[in-house]
């Protein structure tokens, strides 16, 4: 293996060293401007065609976005998502046969509150982004991370997926759409498929929208700002912080998509990014949900489907495209900015992958191709959507429900339980499995009042219903680890806590009435 | 003895944070006996421009993996990378593609 790589490297060098005036591999005429993949030099023009084509090919191949559908573009201002926005603009504007036919909107999540940015910095960034978004003419929504404290419980429910469109209906839908457009086009040329009046109204609406947010509650109330600070202060490690931020961001995006009537969300993950995500997710214990976390489409939320159309581009291609063709992007410092290499698992994985990529140019694509082949064992659109237990935070299928006797996970649980029993006080409260969280709540609740008591119940009011609900049993393995890294769960946004309580009540009720229910299996046996 | 050369340096994608948040730098490299190449430029940047955390910009004698280099708007891999001989008025761009800059 090593030998093969060495030979390959030599070959590469031989080809690229005398290449100051190298020609493009595609048109054989233009002067090469950049090298993508091992040794393929492209000129400016060919690179542009290649880049633009790839985006549309990705969407065309997957046939997931129906004509006329409303699609929310998640733009962070960074290079990949800005490039995605530019590609959507390009695809919608020109009158090519492979024109894109959906209706886009933009969402930006302002995470400054979690990353310790000052108010002025955040306002500056938002103002810059607003000009960038306004130039596109698409409706846009600027949402502050603080708004997670206002989210309703419904975010955490995976709505059973919208009626699956039968195979082959895509073609019919496209034809129908093209015909409609032709009829419309004959009376109002120019805008193509979109009615200019509708478009105008949409733009106006979106402006109202953002003005609402900007003026009504300047970024967010002070209370929520403090809540957010407290939440992130209670997370002990950067690894868990990044994971928590990712979870909350995702909830906000899905919620916005639902309330504003979008059925798809586009994320700008590049293949370099996904390769890092794949490896770091494995290290974080998210192996069971790799397929939904890194695949082209992610149907975990049921009614809103996440798609990742940039997953065929490397970050190098994106950076070069943005630079060469003047795609604006904004750099916003995040949690891991200027962090040392080993600050978090995600950060370390990234430097590992990029370092390996520097010596072995096919690293990223190899990892990425692996992610393409992953599938969940259970078909995501099974009819028994309701019965599949989902993780409270990431909404992936629970991998912690029925632990086998001989599994490592079971062993961890047993040893955890044993070590807890040594603390007699906490063991008395509730059952052995909930003792840990309850104990944490009691101890940290003393220091930080408000968190616990503000929800109306005293910390140790009753032994039967733990006030800080036992989150653990509702979480997947990886989210358990994240919660474990928190000093207490009382600073979590209310929607998470109340949903946990609701799920507990429900399972308790189910247990109580279970004697009176007909067992499903018995039923089936009887029927057959 | 080569004459001093003027360069336009640009940092983006978060790399500018290591240079006091300034993206564009107009610099003049002093004259020296042999012509300036990229390798020497990196040493010069490290000594004269870099404000903090040099390990986040240079590693060994080259740039940190994940930071792209463009010389006159072309990939530096086409120009011979570290051995490229800098000319007067060259435009060198460093773009970080790493998460968080």
TrEMBL record, chain A:
Q: Name the Gene Ontology biological process terms.
A: protein urmylation; tRNA wobble position uridine thiolation
Q: What keywords are annotated for this sequence in UniProt?
A: Cytoplasm, tRNA processing
User: In which pathway is this protein known to take part?
Assistant: tRNA modification; 5-methoxycarbonylmethyl-2-thiouridine-tRNA biosynthesis
GO MF, one annotated term: nucleotidyltransferase activity
Q: Which GO terms describe its cellular component?
A: cytosol
Location relative to the cell: Cytoplasm
Q: Which SUPFAM superfamilies does its entry note?
A: Adenine nucleotide alpha hydrolases-like (SSF52402)
Q: Which InterPro entries match?
A: CTU2, Rossmann-like_a/b/a_fold
Pfam families referenced in this protein's UniProt entry, alphabetically: CTU2
Q: What does this protein do?
A: Plays a central role in 2-thiolation of mcm(5)S(2)U at tRNA wobble positions of tRNA(Lys), tRNA(Glu) and tRNA(Gln). May act by forming a heterodimer with CTU1/ATPBD3 that ligates sulfur from thiocarboxylated URM1 onto the uridine of tRNAs at wobble position.
Which family is annotated?
Belongs to the CTU2/NCS2 family.
> Which protein, by its recorded name, is this?
Cytoplasmic tRNA 2-thiolation protein 2
Which species does the entry assign this protein to?
Albula goreensis
Q: Which gene encodes it?
A: CTU2
TrEMBL record, chain B:
Q: In which pathway does it act?
A: tRNA modification; 5-methoxycarbonylmethyl-2-thiouridine-tRNA biosynthesis
Superkingdom of origin organism: Eukaryota
Locate the 1-thioglycine modifications and list their residues: 101
* Organism name: Albula goreensis
What this protein is reported to do is described as: Acts as a sulfur carrier required for 2-thiolation of mcm(5)S(2)U at tRNA wobble positions of cytosolic tRNA(Lys), tRNA(Glu) and tRNA(Gln). Serves as sulfur donor in tRNA 2-thiolation reaction by being thiocarboxylated (-COSH) at its C-terminus by MOCS3. The sulfur is then transferred to tRNA to form 2-thiolation of mcm(5)S(2)U. Also acts as a ubiquitin-like protein (UBL) that is covalently conjugated via an isopeptide bond to lysine residues of target proteins.
Main localization is cytoplasm
What gene is it encoded by? URM1
- Modification comment: C-terminal thiocarboxylation occurs in 2 steps, it is first acyl-adenylated (-COAMP) via the hesA/moeB/thiF part of MOCS3, then thiocarboxylated (-COSH) via the rhodanese domain of MOCS3.
Q: Does the keyword tRNA processing apply?
A: yes
Per UniProt, subcellular location reads as:
Cytoplasm
Q: Sorted alphabetically, which Pfam families does this protein's record hold? A: Urm1
Q: Keyword Cytoplasm on this protein?
A: yes
The alphabetical list of record keywords is: Cytoplasm, Isopeptide bond, tRNA processing, Ubl conjugation pathway
Q: Which Gene3D superfamilies did the record assign?
A: 3.10.20.30
Q: Which GO terms describe its biological process?
A: protein urmylation; tRNA thio-modification; tRNA wobble uridine modification
GO cellular component assignments: cytosol
Q: Which family does it belong to?
A: Belongs to the URM1 family.
Where exactly is the Glycyl lysine isopeptide (Gly-Lys) (interchain with K-? in acceptor proteins) cross-link placed along the chain? 101
Tell me the protein's name.
Ubiquitin-related modifier 1
């Amino acid at each position: 293996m090593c030998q093969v790589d060495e030979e390959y490297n030599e070959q590469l060098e031989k080809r690229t060293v005398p290449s100051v005036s190298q020609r493009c591999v595609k048109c054989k005429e233009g002067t090469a401007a950049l090298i993508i993949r091992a040794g393929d030099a492209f000129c400016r023009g060919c690179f542009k065609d290649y880049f633009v084509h790839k985006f549309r090919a990705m969407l065309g191949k997957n046939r997931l976005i129906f004509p006329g559908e409303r699609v929310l573009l998640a733009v962070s201002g960074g290079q990949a998502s800005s490039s995605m926005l530019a590609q959507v603009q390009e695809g919608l504007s020109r009158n090519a046969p492979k024109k894109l036919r959906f209706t886009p909107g933009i969402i930006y999540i302002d995470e400054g509150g979690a990353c310790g940015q000052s108010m002025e910095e955040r306002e500056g960034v938002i103002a810059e982004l607003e000009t960038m978004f306004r130039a596109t003419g698409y409706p846009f929504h600027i949402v502050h991370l603080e708004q997670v404290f206002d989210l309703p419980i419904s975010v955490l429910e995976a709505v059973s997926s919208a009626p699956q469109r039968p195979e082959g209906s895509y073609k019919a839908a496209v034809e129908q759409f093209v015909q409609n457009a032709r009829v419309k086009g004959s009376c109002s040329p120019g805008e193509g498929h979109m009615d200019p009046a509708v478009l105008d109204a949409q733009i106006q609406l979106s402006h109202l929208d953002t003005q609402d947010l900007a003026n009504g509650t300047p970024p967010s109330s002070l209370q929520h700002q403090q809540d957010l600070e407290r939440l992130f202060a209670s997370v002990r490690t950067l690894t868990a912080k990044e994971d928590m931020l990712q979870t909350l961001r995702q909830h906000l995006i899905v919620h916005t998509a639902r309330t504003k009537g979008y059925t798809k969300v586009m994320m700008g993950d590049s293949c370099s990014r996904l390769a890092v995500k794949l490896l770091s997710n494995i290290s974080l214990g998210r192996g069971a949900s790799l397929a939904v976390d890194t695949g082209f489409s992610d149907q975990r939320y049921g009614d809103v489907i996440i798609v990742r159309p940039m997953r065929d581009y490397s970050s190098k291609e994106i950076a070069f495209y943005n630079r060469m063709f003047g795609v604006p992007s904004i750099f916003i410092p995040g949690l891991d900015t200027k962090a040392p290499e080993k600050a978090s698992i995600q950060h370390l994985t990234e430097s590992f992958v990029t370092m390996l990529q520097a010596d072995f140019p096919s690293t990223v694509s190899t990892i990425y191709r692996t992610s393409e082949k992953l599938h969940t064992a259970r078909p995501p659109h099974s009819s028994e959507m309701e019965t599949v237990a989902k993780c409270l935070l990431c909404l992936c299928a629970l991998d912690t429900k029925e632990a086998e006797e001989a599994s490592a996970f079971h062993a961890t649980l047993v040893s955890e339980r044993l070590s807890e029993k040594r603390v007699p006080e906490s063991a008395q409260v509730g059952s052995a499995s909930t003792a840990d969280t309850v104990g944490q709540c009691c101890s940290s609740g003393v220091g930080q009042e408000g968190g616990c008591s503000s929800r109306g119940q005293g910390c140790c009011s009753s032994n039967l219903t733990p006030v800080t609900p036992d989150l653990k049993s509702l979480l997947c393995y990886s989210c358990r680890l994240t919660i474990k890294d928190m000093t207490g769960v009382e600073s979590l946004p209310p929607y998470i806590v109340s949903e946990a309580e609701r799920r507990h009540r429900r399972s308790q009720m189910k247990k109580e009435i279970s004697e009176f229910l007909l067992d499903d299996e018995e039923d089936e046996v009887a029927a057959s | 003895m080569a004459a001093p050369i003027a360069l336009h340096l640009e940092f983006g994608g978060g790399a500018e944070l290591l240079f006091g948040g300034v993206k564009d730098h107009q610099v003049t490299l002093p004259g020296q006996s042999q012509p300036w190449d990229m390798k020497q430029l990196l040493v010069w940047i490290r000594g004269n421009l870099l404000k903090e955390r040099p390990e986040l910009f240079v590693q060994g004698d080259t740039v940190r993996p994940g930071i792209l280099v463009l010389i006159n708007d072309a990939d530096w891999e086409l120009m011979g990378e570290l051995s490229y001989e800098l000319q007067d008025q060259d435009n060198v761009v460093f773009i970080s593609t790493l998460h968080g800059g």
